[in-house]
Amino acid sequence: MPARPQAHKYRGAIVDQWARREDARLLTGNGRYVADIDVPGCLDAVFVRSKLGHGALRDVDCAAAREVAGVAGAWSAADLSDLPACAHAGATLQDLPPVPHTVLAKLSSDEAVVGREWPALVKDRVRYAGEAVAVVLGEDRYLAEDGAAEVTFHVDPLPAVVTPSAAAEDSVRLFDGLSNIALRGEAGQPIDDGVWQQAAAVVEGRYRQNLLMPMPMECRTILAVPEGDRLTVWAGHQMPHRLRRELAALLGWSKERIRVVVPDTGGAFGSKSAAFPEFVVVAFLAVKLQRPVRWIEDRLESMMVATRGRGQDQHARLAADADGRLLAYELNIDADIGAYPHLGVGLPMQTAWMATGPYATPQVHATLRSVLTNTMLTYPYRGAGRPEAVIALERSMDTLARRLGIDPAELRRRNFIPPESFPYETPTGRQYDSGEYARALDLALESVGYDTWRAEQARRRTDSTAKPLGIGISCYVERSGGEPGGLHEFGSIEVTADGSVTVRLGAASSGQSHETVFPALVAKFLGIDEHRVRLIEGDTDEQPQGLGSFASRTAQVAGALLQHACLLVVEEARSRAADLWKLPLDQVEWSGGTVQASADESLMDLGELVKHTGPLRVEDRFETGMAFPFGSHVAVAEVDPELGTVELLKIVTVDDCGVVLNPDIVHAQAFGSALQGIGQALYEGIPYDEAGTPMLGNGLLDYLLPTFTEVPPIEIKDTCTPSPSSPLGAKGAGESGCIGLPAAIVNAVVDALQPADPDLLQMPLTPDVIWRAARAPKLEENR
User: Fold this and answer.
1) Per the CB 3.0–4.6 Å rule, which of 463, 509, 651, 688 could disulfide with 514?
2) Which of 729, 195, 232 is nearest to 480 (CA)?
3) What are the angstrom distances between the C-alpha of 662 and each of 19, 215, 399, 668?
4) Cα 772 to Cα 391, 463, 516, 671, 758, distances in angstroms
């Protein structure tokens, strides 16, 4: 540990240089990631992958690879069925099992999977570019790469479909005899035709939600180490207990025989939440060979085969009366779930459930089709279904405002669900917990200087030499915590005789500052110094039950569990002190980490109490309800019609995540997600060729991410509307920018260019898209 640095000014306060506990370790190169773990005798795995997106696999030959010096083995799926097992493998471990289907609360369907299982190695048919046809193990990664280069195979090409609308036609089927439509769903009730016919204004729009890459700093990783009749698995993962359960099922073992440990993890954004084909192969070979096996995904490999996000084709229809009061909203979704129905098959239901947004729309109906395509699988990605809902609705709101000649901010104000209506049951079946939507919008407009920018926009519209200026607004509601059945967490608190406190939690951090936030929270509730509190998480041996970190749930759910556990510690301490002092319980109080007898002023801290009464440990499971964070984002954009470029002049985000546990960390989360929202709106998208191959051979030169150069002035503010669903009053805080900002940016560009057909502007707003829209017919009259 480095010497303690001097304090310095940070955001107006005197704090340590390392603002988080994690920083001293991570920023000085002392973090410990899976790739840093040195295990004697470890073999490195390299996968041989198809470049085509669809085709029949022929003639996989690994013989030459096995002759390469330093190669310990090379196998296709057929080869692995003949691989003998060591004694500890167990009689149930024969053929390489398929990837376990992940069911998360209400978001998946087992019926969709039947006949469409995801093989860990391709057996007969490639269904997405990058799908693995063989694996090579080497004494190090370089030797394994040499061996992989010697594997030969052939794929007979088949036609590929890479968009959900095209795949839904079933002209090219990924599975013989089965439709590409794996799941159909709906939320709300169908809307009578008379509503549309009698409305004063009806607007329609078609929106393409571009396929995105989560792009964490650290790609996917796994290290499987056999230890007698047990297997220890190290992985950068969001849900270690689920990974343990899935690996146990595929090996045919009890879960007690598997330990999963999550060390330092360099980001996830939803992309590290399940078992993957590579995980199955690594665990299988480690057990079969009784040797440690490791797979570290590199960046180009990740860009080819890591999980995708978004990917929807949408048709939206919105109706209002002459005063701009919303009457009905309809959303039809074709969702790209990739080549196999896995965790993403039910994910579009989040879009359907959240179609209502922050508005008191009497009738809302959303329908969806989850469609198989020749792409890598779609998984939860920061926001997971809610950005898609917001973009369709908020773009429709701006189109409606132009149609009615109403300021877009005013149109939203007229339709917000009022604060007195909470809890509010939406037409799609969500029960919103709390909200003050107008307050967030007013703060965003005031902060951005809305009237000043509108005046500047009006001036530019009279100046033919000025670049067009647009102001875009987006108001959103999202769901945090998870679905019913997954709104709980497990944990324990243990106090030792020296007064130190150990917290064990079923979550697992991938960069969200758990190590800082949760000890501070426990210290606050117990009234002790936070340096006495240590957090242990991400280890299934230390904490045998847990759900993990996903759906912006850890503050809302895990934080509430820790508050609950602290109350149990306090009550146990009071009870012990009462027994020790022979006093009634109501005469023993708790204050500042000590028990006190009100009658005779006896006082004892936790450490002394444990010395006299023995170890103190509490553990429990705690459940909360869903929460619904919300906010308003405003973007000001200047467009160059000749170059097709967009310059963001100012962005203001106002988010309400209820009670904030650590303002600096929440601010950083909002800033980071805003950058990802900018990426979706302006830069990111996966292009495919006719064979279903992503055209990403130049890596990050082909898939653009916003860099420091592209970061505009971003002002981040918040309001606080506590959630009644959690004792802490906290709501999810990590996904706001991804959810609310893309629509604001697109609306700003539409507002600047004013094309007669706003559907011309689809994300990402590349120079080509902008250039073409700038030359399309304009609205007859400027608003």
Assistant:
1) 509
2) 729
3) 11, 25, 38, 10
4) 21, 22, 49, 31, 12
Q: pLDDT tens, 199-240?
A: 999 999 999 999 999 999 999 999 999 999 999 999 999 999
Mean pLDDT, rounded, for 10-33: 71
For the 34-158+216-268+272-305 domain, the top CATH level (class) is alpha beta
Q: In the predicted model, is pLDDT for residue 105 greater than 80?
A: no
How far apart, in Å, are the Cα atoms of 782 and each of 172, 729, 754?
Answer: 45, 44, 8
**Is the pLDDT at 5 greater than 70, yes or no?**
no
Rg (CA), the chain: 28
Predicted local distance difference test score (pLDDT) of residue 156: 97
Q: Which fold has domain 387-478+628-774?
A: Aldehyde Oxidoreductase; domain 4 (3.30.365)
Specify which residues 295 forms β-bridges with: 222
Neighbours of 298 (CB within 10 A): 12
Can you read off the two tokens belonging to residue 472? 């875009």
* Per-residue pLDDT tens digits for 628-669: 999 999 999 999 999 999 999 999 999 999 999 999 999 999
- DSSP string spanning 9-76? EETTEEE-SS-SHHHHHHTTT----GGG---TTPEEEEEEE-SSSSEEEEEEE-HHHHTSTTEEEEEE
Q: What pLDDT does residue 641 have?
A: 96
Q: What percent of the chain has pLDDT over 70?
A: 95
Cα–Cα dist 19/25, whole Å: 12
Give 454's DSSP letter.
H
The domain ranges of the chain are: 1-31, 34-158+216-268+272-305, 387-478+628-774, 488-623
Domain 488-623 has CATH 3.40.630.30: no
pLDDT at 782 over 70: no
pLDDT(685) > 80: yes
- Picking from 555, 130, 511, the residue whose alpha carbon sits closest to that of residue 303 is 130
CA atoms within 13 A on the CB side of 429: 13
Q: 457-473 in b/e burial notation, b at 16+ Cβ within 10 A?
A: beebeeeeeebbbbbbb
Q: Taking the CA of residue 458 as centre, how many other CA atoms within 13 Å lie in the half-sphere pointing to its CB? A: 7
pLDDT in tens, 350-387: 999 999 999 999 999 999 999 999 999 999 999 999 99
CA 532 vs CA 4, 48, 529, 539, 561: distances in Å: 17, 49, 6, 21, 19
In 173-229, at which residue ranges do the beta strands (DSSP E only) sit? 181-188, 201-212, 221-227
Helix axes 437-448, 408-415, angle to 10 degrees: 160
Residue 534: strand, helix, or coil = strand
